[in-house]
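hey m, so remember when u said the tokens were messed up on ur end? i reran from scratch. heres the input so u can diff it against urs
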Amino acid sequence: MSLHISPPSPPDLVDTLAVWRARFPHFAEMIDAGESPVKALRYLGLGLWQEGDVTGAVAALTTAASLTPDDAALLADLGAVLWLDGRKADALACFIASIERDPNRVQIWLTVASLCNEIGEIATAEHAYRAALDLDPASAEAATGLGLICLESRRYDEAVALLRAALERGVRTPAIEACYGQTLYLIGEFAAARAAFERAAAALPEEAPIIRKFALALCVETTIDATPDEAFAAYRGAAGVHAESDERIGHTVFQALCGFGHKDAAIRLGEALLLAAPGDAIIPFHLDALRGRPHERASRAYITASFDKYAPDFDRHLVGTLDYRLPETLQPLLAETGRAFPRILDLGCGTGLAARMLASFGKAVVGIDLSPRMLDKARERQVYAQLVEQDAEEYLAGSGEPFDLIVALDMLIYLGDLSTLFEGAASRLVPGGVFAFSFETDAGVDYALAPSGRFAHSPAYVEKLWEKDFVPLVSQATTIRIEANRPVDGRLVLLQRR
């Protein structure tokens, strides 16, 4: 970005200088002593700024900059007063013009980064912080700012390194300690996270959210090395009056242990949770997964209980936390077929995250799901022609009007053996109809159940299943979601019914 400042015409400049000479005696003395108008105007502008006359400061510095538009320092000063005056776009233009003339001033890069953060130009802010770090690798401010951007954009490994560097360089504020702790927790470094949260909590003993994060990290850390009873006692001692129920914390810790591969600790905690709640329909399936016990599919009871519990926060968590984007990824692939699909079946429709996208391709969308609470959320969208509470394989095995498009996004992960699903999809599609689905691809065998309670499948196994009834249209690698803050590899496939 460049900045063009038009100098005032000579009569205007003469009139302006005369006014300022009359108002500011020291300015007049500088001019009379032979000082250049630019230096005198800059002195005047900075003096007015200090006195709180921002409008006057802007006028003086703008006039000075019009006389010497290549003065990088003067442009930076003008940018500062424009920012103070609320003229953020003009201020940014001045700062960038200053950098163009002298790119080696670390503080101006940092100022640009701060302003861009304020106005939401995050990509430019990141570029500015990186430029500042290139010039001064020891800059604590640049490391802090860039670390926070990386945290917000889920680049956790980079964020940890930058925030650690900021702390080592003396940025010991409770807020940065807490951000550092959160980042460590999100990559599974629970002991280090606990230590960072503990420092933040000690500095802010009344901040309930930080106290809870400290106590949670301590609970996970203790569960890994000790018994569940000791972990819960440690949690309650750290959380104090801010403690949540053992059941809620226990399930949160269990998920963290499963996600980051602490199998033995997860099994110990899962057994303790099941002992406390023998009727729990979720924990037994995860324990089987942790112990490597084979399953051909997730049980209906497990799916219903999991998603009924998950329904209120499903959209926020899946999209906001797990970065689920499969409907958006599928949309252009369906568009490329150049077809409309009058009747569409959405298997495992959940809350209907794909509903509006699918409705743009057809007249009627039917949703199938096992969870009544998820279907209640889907109903609120007022998109589906019909919603059915039924197992997907059972529905496909039934009779009824055929479909032009069947979609199963993030649904095959609850099935191991897919043969029945593929046979059912073939039977319910019109000739030439499309079957679109996603699956996880980490299995070294046909399919394998992960500690997360989800199945991964071998691409070769899936390809073998479609050979009889389908012709492949698209099979592309994709990211299914974020799991334990790492991308989950998968494939998105479109098949055409023979």
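this time it looks ok to me. The chain has 25 helices and nine strands. if urs says something different then somethings off w ur setup not the seq
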